[in-house]
Specification:
86 residues, elongated, 5 helices
């Protein structure tokens, strides 16, 4: 247990904003992401606008399509820093 890293929140980003940011970085429209994931475009819009909870299974599907780890979408704005030994 001497080599662990403590997570620290660095910015405030909602889950929906993280999905939108990752989608835009991939240069995908909501419709294109819907085609890749099988998730309806209206649901993707709801997630991005924080009206619909992402859920574990959707996070996995979206992460696969957006080529990232699901934690990037579910825990946006968290940075892990290595704890220095005292």
């Amino acid at each position: 247990m001497k080599h662990y890293r403590k997570a620290k929140r660095t910015i405030v980003v909602s889950v929906g904003e993280s999905v939108r940011i990752m989608r835009e970085l991939q240069e995908l429209s909501q419709a294109e992401l819907a085609d890749l994931t099988g998730i309806p475009q209206s649901t993707i819009s709801g997630i991005e606008n924080d009206r619909i909870n992402i859920g574990v299974e959707r996070a996995k599907v979206l992460a696969r399509a957006l080529k990232c780890h699901p934690a990037v979408l579910v825990f946006p704005g968290w940075e892990i820093k290595e704890k220095t030994a005292a």
